[in-house]
Each structure stands twice: as C-alpha cells, then as structure tokens.
Write a sequence for this structure.
C-alpha cells in the first residue's frame, strides 16, 4: 500500500484530538506521551508528523511534485502551520515512523514550549484555555474561534453545541477572534495564565473570565 493511502486509512479510523500550532503540538505530545498523526494542510502541501510515545519520530511532505520523507520534509516546515491531531495506537505510529524516520530532531526541538525562556522568573507552561461564546445569554455553536499572537494564527476551531472550544497553549496574552456564520468578526484579548482557564465571551463585545 502506498504510504499516502496508508496515512489516509489510519487517519480515517483515528480519534481527532483538536488543532494545534506547531510548538504547542510538540509540547503537548511530549507532556502527554501520546502517539498520533498530525496533519497540516498549507496550499497544495500536506505535512504529516508521526509521534510515537510523545516524540516526533517521522515526517512526510506531500505535494503536486511528489513526496519527501524524514529530515528532508522537516527542513521545509515553516513552523507556523496549524496541525490537526489524530491519536493512534503506538504500534501504528512505530510502523509509520519507520517509513519516514526523522534522524535530526534539532530543527524540531528548538520549537518545544518547554524550552521557552523564563520571564520574570517564571517558566512558561502549557495549559488548556477554553472559550465559551454567548450572544444575549444564548450559547453559540458553530462559531469559528481563532487564537492569535501578533499576525500568527496559533490555533483555530469551531464551538460545539455548548458554545465551547478549547485549545492547548502556553501561558500568555492572546488575541481571540470570533467569526459567526454571517462572517461578522469580533476581537477580544485573553490573558491566559493558569493550567486551566475558561473565558466566557459575549460577541456583543464583553469578555468575562471565570
């Protein structure tokens, strides 16, 4: 079976675990020691990272010109991709990684959140930020919520039926952009500094931290 078809087969039968920015993804997987496939679609390019027990063991780049594997694929990462994470059994991860092995991990590891510099004596830590979107006290499902740092989109996902969406992020100040079904955009600032934080956003213009 062609490796691209194998990736498709594994992803279609795997558990979707959310969208992650590149550095957040590496920190999250390392902290939780999970195995999975992370897929980033950027234009006509598809990047796939293979994690085994929390470590990035394999990489593949697929585009119109063909495929690159391992270190050659890693060198073309721009580090601003948003990855869809799919959790898989460790043995599947090991099998896939063997076909696209990463030998030089320094290009990846320098982005790990655990290596971020300390500010004010406190090291930045990874946590979960949940956003609840309301309008006139009514929970809003199907809203596109994006977390940004400057011009970079770190994560993006849709609110569920309970109006909630959650992201794995390092602590800090973020811009939160909410887009409704009519493509009307609301912007908020979120100060995230706990291991778990939930913010309720009124798309009429108010933000309440709980």
């Amino acid at each position: 079976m062609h490796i691209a078809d194998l990736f498709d087969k594994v992803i279609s039968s795997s558990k979707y675990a959310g969208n992650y920015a590149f550095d957040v993804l590496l920190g999250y997987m390392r902290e939780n020691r999970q195995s999975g496939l992370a897929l980033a679609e950027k234009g006509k390019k598809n990047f796939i990272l293979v994690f085994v027990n929390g470590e990035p063991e394999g990489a593949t780049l697929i585009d119109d010109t063909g495929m690159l594997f391992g270190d050659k694929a890693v060198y073309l990462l721009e580090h601003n991709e948003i990855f869809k994470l799919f959790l898989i059994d460790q043995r599947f991860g090991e099998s896939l990684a063997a076909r696209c092995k990463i030998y030089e991990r320094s290009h990846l590891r320098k982005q790990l959140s655990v290596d971020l510099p300390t500010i004010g004596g406190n090291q930045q830590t990874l946590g979960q930020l949940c956003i609840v979107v309301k309008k006139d006290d009514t929970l809003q499902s199907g809203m596109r919520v994006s977390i940004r740092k400057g011009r970079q989109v770190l994560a993006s996902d849709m609110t569920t039926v309970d109006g909630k969406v959650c992201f794995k992020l390092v602590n800090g100040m973020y811009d939160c952009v909410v887009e409704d079904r009519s493509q009307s955009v609301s912007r908020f600032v979120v100060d995230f500094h706990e291991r778990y934080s939930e913010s309720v956003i009124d798309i009429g213009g108010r933000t309440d931290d709980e």
